[in-house]
Design goal:
single chain; Neutral Protease, domain 2; 8-stranded mixed sheet; globular; disordered N terminus; binds tryptophan; binds zinc ion
């Protein structure tokens, strides 16, 4: 009798202590972070500062086992919160206590802590899991790529769901420790610096650390049989590159390209300022994919990028993203021009310095290549929509907009902007509207109408707007098509090889909207 009376009393008292506000104020975190392009991506209610991932992987079976320890801070009084994840979870702890969990939607892991979490509190979440990533899909697609010797996680805008639970949106960046155990003779790569590597009982463990904030889609995991090379940039940044031993005929060209990573990073820092990270490199796994991706500090390159011989242009593109995309990340996926327009323009600058076509010649070529009724001009680089996020227009019309800006405000202001922007938003997030304000401020020129024409109008900019491209000055031959610059094939290849993404997100949209 006594006990029966005491227990509810103690419970009530402890709840009062733990929860100053009324329990009704504690609500579930949103299942998405609020990005209109991808409403279910990321989550609400907390902000992650660090991921510690301990992973074991079997290349022969594709079995992945992991323990993720996530350090976060709550941003509201939370009764429950989500992580984005697809593998099978066996156990979740929140601040050391067993938490209940369930799956929901396409990729939500719903976690209900034993005790609700007050706003502004530090939280430690431990998730134990396992699964065969290649057996999992969401919206009907998978971005996990098995190779004959292992696997690769490198995709955009999502790749984490297949290997660790996360708040999967660029708005929530965090630092990472990634420890991966694989059979001896196999390597495991990730972002940042290799802190240590050790072998025991037939398995090798690789401990990687990225000590600067990193967006989830820029994390990478690659397991396979690699040849590793190391070097140091002129600025003192350590380089680790990796080449699958099975690249066959593409091996030489891959190495002849990726080994120039340090040279290219040093060259880019002349335009964009000091390289923002503590590590550098690139890797070429034995995949059948065609694309490249700017995974932080260590871009991913498909062997196909090197099928025609060396391709330094794609190295320039992915390394340019280290400033434009990785250090300064999009606020929302609508801001993709801040990544692709600038990485493409870096390729134009490289072409210019190599004598393979000036930025002006490339601009003339792109402008003339697409007649006014080409669907190319219906894509607005400043807000392309999820189905056109990676269209040619985001890259080519995106770079064209930068050449037009340069012609409008002059080289001095233009190059001050190119270098000042990555410093102004280092390790953070920014939107296209922030860039517009910044460009107006640095150039002292009102640019609202200009950006409207080049980034936000679904039509080919005509004269007098096109005069900003100095098309008229380019020989005055109205009907002659400008010659195709030698650099064009590689610039085009950098983005046309990931056309599959467009298909992927068409599937995605259909699933979401139930067509
Ligand atoms: N951001 C990548 C690049 O510019 C290209 C890309 C777009 C991509 N969508 C992708 C790469 C999906 C891999 C998967 O190089
Ligand atoms: Zn890119």
């Amino acid at each position: 009798m006594h006990r029966r009376l005491i227990v509810p009393g103690v419970l009530a008292a402890s709840l009062m202590l733990a929860i100053p506000a009324s329990a009704a104020d504690f609500t579930p975190g949103a299942p998405g972070i609020g990005d209109p392009y991808y409403p279910a991506y990321g989550n609400g209610g907390y902000d992650v500062s660090h991921y510690d991932l301990k992973i074991g992987y079997e290349p022969s079976t594709d079995l992945l086992k992991g323990t993720a320890t996530i350090l976060a801070t709550t941003t509201q009084d939370l009764s429950r919160f989500d992580l984005d994840f697809l593998l099978d979870v066996s156990d979740v702890r929140v601040n050391g206590a067993e938490a209940s969990f369930a799956t929901s939607g396409q990729h939500e892991l719903q976690i209900t802590p034993a005790v609700p979490l007050a706003k502004g509190a530090p939280v430690t979440v431990v998730v134990r899991y396992s699964g065969v990533p290649s057996s999992k899909s969401a919206y009907g697609f998978s971005t996990w790529h098995r190779t004959p010797d292992g696997a690769v996680a490198a995709d955009e805008p999502e790749s984490a769901w297949w290997w660790y639970p996360s708040n999967d949106h660029p708005l929530d960046k965090a630092t990472y420790d990634v420890s991966v155990s694989v059979p001896d003779g196999t390597q495991a790569l990730s972002n940042g610096v290799l802190q240590s590597q050790s072998s025991k009982l037939g398995r090798t463990t690789f401990n990687w650390r990225e000590n600067k904030p990193q967006a989830t889609y820029l994390t990478t995991l690659a397991v396979g049989r690699f040849d590793i090379t190391t070097a140091t940039t002129a600025a003192g940044v350590p380089i680790v590159n990796a080449y699958s031993k099975d690249l066959a005929d593409n091996y030489g060209a891959a190495r002849a390209s990726v080994e120039r990573t340090g040279e290219v990073a040093d060259w880019l820092s002349g335009y964009f300022g000091r390289y923002p990270f503590s590590a550098l490199g690139g890797y070429v796994p034995n995949t059948t994919t065609g694309y490249a991706l700017e995974t932080q500090t260590r871009p991913f390159y498909s062997p196909k990028q090197f099928a025609n011989g060396s391709n330094v242009s794609v190295i320039v593109h992915e390394l340019a993203h280290q400033w434009y995309g990785d250090s300064v990340s999009v606020k929302g996926w609508k801001d993709i021009w801040l990544n692709e327009g600038f990485a493409s323009y870096a390729q134009w600058l490289w072409s210019d310095s190599e004598g393979d076509g000036s930025t002006q010649q490339l601009a003339d070529y792109v402008y003339a290549s697409h007649p006014a009724d080409d669907a190319f001009w219906t894509v607005k680089p400043g807000d392309p929509g999820p189905d056109h996020q990676f269209d040619d227009a985001v890259y080519d019309r995106g770079a064209l907009a930068l050449q037009a800006l340069r012609n409008k405000i002059g080289d001095t202001a233009f190059f001050r902007i190119l270098k000042g922007w990555p410093a102004a938003h280092a390790y953070g997030n920014a939107a296209v509207s922030d860039f517009e304000k910044y460009a107006e401020q640095v150039s002292g020129t009102p640019l609202a109408a200009f950006f409207d024409t080049w980034l936000f109008t679904a039509a080919k900019p005509a004269t007098p707007a096109a005069a900003q491209l100095r098309i008229a000055a380019a020989g005055g031959a109205k009907h002659a098509r400008p010659a195709r610059p030698r650099s064009w094939a590689q610039i085009e290849q950098t983005h046309t090889v990931h056309k599959h993404t467009v298909h992927k997100h068409t599937i995605h949209k259909h699933t979401v909207h139930g067509h």
